[in-house]
Queue: 4 jobs
Job 1
Amino acid sequence: MEWLTRFKALFVLTYTGFLGNIAVIYYLSRGLTYSEIGLATAFSALGFFLFEVPTGVVGDRASRKTSVLIGLSIYPIGILLLLFLRNFWMLLASELISVLGASFVSGSIQAWFFDNLKAEGREGEFKEMWRSIQKATVLAGSSTTIAGAFMAQLWGFEIPILLTLLLHLAMIPLAWSIPEVGFSKLETSYTRHVLHSFRELLKPEVFWLLAYLMTVTLSLSQFRKFFEPYLGDVLAKSLGTTIMGTLGILGIVEVLTRTAPRYAGIALRGRIGRMLHEVAPVAIPLFTLLSVIYPNAVFIVALGIMATLCASAFTFNFSVEFQRRIPSEKRATILSLRNMVLAIVSAVFYGVYGFVVQHLGLARARLLFALFFLAFGASFKLAQLGPLGEYLAMEEAEKG
């Protein structure tokens, strides 16, 4: 399986960059407001809603590889625009172009990998191989995130943005070199294919699993959204410096709270992994709540670590379970439809959250939304014990 090494490298590079979540501080330094950043993020999520299904159909009707190559060719344009960021409209253009490129990649890259394995009769190894790829992604992301944060602090944000651009350009020839096997071109009409794929999402065993994912995804998004300026402000006050003077520390913190615990959450098996998976819908908003009640930098970092551990254990099991429940011939489109649904819900959340933060302040907004997601997560846990138990049980999670 010579192609596996190259595919692993491609996937790792796809989710690796030097800017990371400190990008929000770059936007603020360019004069943008929280509401503008939230609105741009909302339009970005809306872009996923608009682009995901057409790009997913390209993956099912043309080929997964073609779709990925198109996406990898578009994405660098969005990164290039960040180098010249001056106002909201440039940020919006960058976000939408990047989203268009990412949409061509998102539904097809995982389907491409699964189909290659299936063609060689090794789809049963998907979970462990996917775990290996995810762990490699986390390790690569950790090093580049820390490096990029210190580069931004010492030499400005332009250096990590330029390195991210070069990294994404290098992915195009790498993707071209990977074979595509086991792909059968779909011959049904575009409309019929989309409708049939959408019906798969409405099946109870898929619909409720997707709704469960949204509970965890949005609560984690709320913990992370504007986390860097929130923590940076706490750090700046305690260290007697400015937010710009904390960028290097924030890069290390991002690894501690996002990438390192994500690695652990993916790698964990057995009782601990199942426990983190089960408590995620309630634990993550609770951690957000506690980060506001007791604004201590070390405590907030610890909460971030726990939130990512829970979310990583949950989303890894979800990804494997979701693949198991959907038909192969519609896989890329269904994955894109799933991302589309998540995108439209996220668009509403980011738009509202940005304006609430602008008017109430970051701490009060975090508190308000944390209470909302805590109530929502608790409701899902109660439903899991009752009428939705058979739909929300994840077979792969039970295996550890």
Job 2
Amino acid sequence: MFTRKDIVVLGMMIFALFLGAGNIIFPPMEGFTAGTHWSTASLGFVLTGVLMPFITLVVVAMVGRGEELTRDLPKWAEVFFLATLYLVIGSLFAMPRVTNVAYEMAWLPLNIVEDTPYTHFIFSFIFNIVGMLFMLRPNTIISTVGKFMTPALLVLLIVVTVNVIISPLSDIVEPSKAYATNSAMTSGLISGYQTMDVLAAIAFGGIVARALAVRNVSSVQNVVKYTISAGLISVFLLAVLYFALFYLGATSAQVAEGATNGGQIFSRYVNALFGAGGTWIMSGIIILANLTTLVGVTSACADYFARFHIRLSYSFWVILFTALTITVAQTGLTELLRITIPALLLIYPVAIMLVFLQIIRNKLPNITFSYYVTLLVTVSFSACDSLKNIDLLPQTIENILNYLPLYAEGMGWLIPAFIALGLSLFLGKKSA
């Protein structure tokens, strides 16, 4: 029997798995640049950073594992997409980012040692080795997350939120950068990509399904029921957290000068509010939160790649990904954030459309045709968004794409993808 207490613990576990680097570092900077438009921007951020991951989590838990989303694709396309996804949310981008957030937000503010490449490497090495030891016995940390670490984390976040609301450091500033020229809602939607939580939900959905299976919950109806119940706890907590961090950023002018990422703004703000004692508490919680995400994501990545060859076991991939994360993490947080965005602009829309196609799969007259047409158009346009971000898109193509709605905001793929899906439904009926 899956009790109400079990649902709460599962919800806390889901919240802790999602609460990693992007969830903390992006909202403060987005809130600062959104300024007086922070509430509208935060709503957009919640739609792509909370609602979409929640839908993805439920869909993946329902089908059992993330790989089921790609079962209607050719084998080469399935492997390419999933391998790219796991590398993006894993050791090439997200997990080095998690490591650097822990370093810049939790370790450096303690002022124990100077910030040098040597110090950075030692911290990255120890942090990831500790994570690796948990990964080799993943149930050890995951089983304790919902009961112990998350409640402690929530206490700190509640204290920070209440103090930010009661005693904001600065007046809210005017919008800047993209928020000064584009729609705050659309800019918030795009910034929500950067949490990578839709991609992570593809991995975490399988973890939730296995956690339910251990408690003998296996029917699709019960899996959906309990995943929605537990997931809504995570949705509520994450949404409240994001609104609070956006407001923190919007009122951070006093400490935001010279900051290159939201992690620095958050650390400076908490230090200004609570002094050295608050910094120590925050450091411990952030390290634990990022460690949980590191273990959850890297375990899922290792589990996927271990299926390719019987001699390359789960343990082999855990060790390999740990070494790769340590290496890539030496790039530094600000640089990692800069190079992550083009990759996300390419893969995120594909993940969103795969989830949507799975939801309406039984309604498609020709499943294979709809998948091929829709995803081909999605990839083509999202590739243009990605190339534009790094200034590699030919000017002639960009001049044409400028006529597309939402293209300037980085969502040029959206309308063409749904037009392609609509055409595939019509043509699929013709060929059925």
Job 3
Amino acid sequence: MTTKGNGMALTPERLKEQKEDYFVAQWEDEQLYMTPHCHCGNVLDEQYYCDQCKRQCTCQVILCRDGQTLNVVEKFLHGNPDFKHFQVHLLEEDS
């Protein structure tokens, strides 16, 4: 499986323009942390509901904070067909 996105850097602002919900991923202390966000930038609760937009979100884009996180996420997705529609990118902070 090839991961859509090829690890290109992407900003939350660009996802807001595209109305794409997303995760921000961080590999820390040998654990993967993934925080869901609405395309508006609001951090989502465990139900993936955005209080600001009043809608249920679907996160299929993963923004990785660094290269190590990107490698971990790509390896995880590669072996799991349930995640074949996910896109993986490096997180590029808004300027």
Job 4
Amino acid sequence: MLLRPTYPALPEPRTHTTTAVVHGHESACPCAHIPAPPTRGIAPVVGLGVGAVAAVVLVGIVLTALVTAVAVGAVSVAVAAVVLRSLLGTPRHR
């Protein structure tokens, strides 16, 4: 009972009625009943550019991390090879 959320009641849906204008003389009607052409805002284009920049930055970060991991692995293998060579080699310098 303590951890169960209680949700607020949903508001009742509003009904919207539209009235249609019907003219019997559509060719002689001086008022404009032509719908406006859809306008294309700049917001979708900006959103696409921001998404592309974010994708490029993310790919750059991932590739940098992979190159760093390969470099660290190569250095650690080289150090291990030097240590093993010194341990398994003949003791000439003693």
